[in-house]
Amino acid sequence: MPLPFEPLTLVHVVFSSRIAGGERHCIDLANAQAALGHRVHVIGSANSAVAAALGSGVRFHGLSLPLLRGWRVAALARRLGADVCHGHLGPACKAVAHVRRSARIGTLHVGYKAHHHGRLDGLVCVNRAQRESLPDGGALASVIYNWAPERDAAEAACQTELRVELGLSPEQLLVGSVGRLHSSKGMDLLIAGFKAHAPADAVLAILGEGPDEALLKGMAGGDPRVRLLGYRSDVDQCLKAFDLFVSPSREEAFPLAILEAMRAGRPVLSTATQGPQEMLAGQPARLVPVGDAVMLGHAIAEELERLRPLPPRQRAVSYATAAYDRANAVARTLAFYRDVLLKQATHARPIENEDEPYAAWRA
Fold first, then answer.
1. Neighbour count for residue 284 (Cβ, 10 Å)
2. Which of 99, 203, 234, 354 could in theory staple to 160 by disulfide, Cβ–Cβ 3.0 to 4.6 A?
């Protein structure tokens, strides 16, 4: 297979209907690649919020039903003349595996799963531990860190006053977290630990939506100190109001919310999941054991006691974030595509018939 000439035709695949960390990464990567002159497409679910977030240089293709998504992605990628088909999150990577005439790439936003990623040609790992744990003899792999995408112009112009919105006095300390309301994100641990150990005048604000919303509201039990604020488009502005940012997750490969908190200069307290252990190594941040609400609560209380005497300006923290540079990550991703394409050109895999697995259904 000869190497394609520049610019490349790049097809990203992401099936989520709403935008969280992995989806935001896909959107910003696609926009950045289009700005560099590549022909960029995104395949996703029809009516997905992803479509509206893409720049004018990226074309979105919505699939109305999840039926036979792998075959439909393969057929569309072939029609578009894709040089590279890049999946984001497990279901999309599983669909990308059906593509036959393109380099098949997957980003491990969560982690490696053989049934999602085992048939891909290239894997983008978002931390070193992922790379080291991959099975031998598999796809070409590279560690490329995510970055914190810049928010759009409307949000950048927004002047949210979260402390005023929450009715806080100047003396009250605000603990905040951002993430999907799902068991993996550990918001239940955060609420339990905060209620049991945080100072009586402290307030907890959780930004995000998800399937555990009713459960978490039940745990809050009407406590006025615990505020579930739902989805917010002004996350960067809200982060600036937090005195302490907490990531209570049970599992994290590369939490963009932590990187955004670092960008905002917020003190960070996180559970020692895979991604934060690497991201926060040598940084002025604190790690606690995973899944332990008591330890998390004690750490919150200790951090707030440390911060309380400091004037608000002195609570800001400076982090080393050069490793999470957007331009460098985009360039490395494109270079990785070329490495996979070169490997394909020198070790050509057979071109299978994309229609074959579905021949009986179509008949």
1. 12
2. 234
The model's pLDDT over 6-60, given as tens digits with 9 standing for 90+, comes to 899 999 999 988 888 899 999 999 999 999 999 999 999 999 999 999 999 999 9
Structural domains in the chain, sorted by start = 9-147+325-362 (3.40.50.2000), 158-315 (3.40.50.2000)
Give the position of tokens 């792998």.
Answer: 70
pLDDT in tens, 78-105: 999 999 999 999 999 999 999 998 999 9
Instruction: Say how many residues make up the chain.
Output: 363
Phi then psi for residue 67, to 5 deg, are -60, 125
- Phi and psi (nearest 5°) for 297? -60, -45
Cα–Cα distance for residue pair 96/82, rounded to 1 Å:
12
Has residue 121 got a pLDDT over 50?
yes
- Which contiguous run of DSSP H or E holds residue 125? strand 122-125
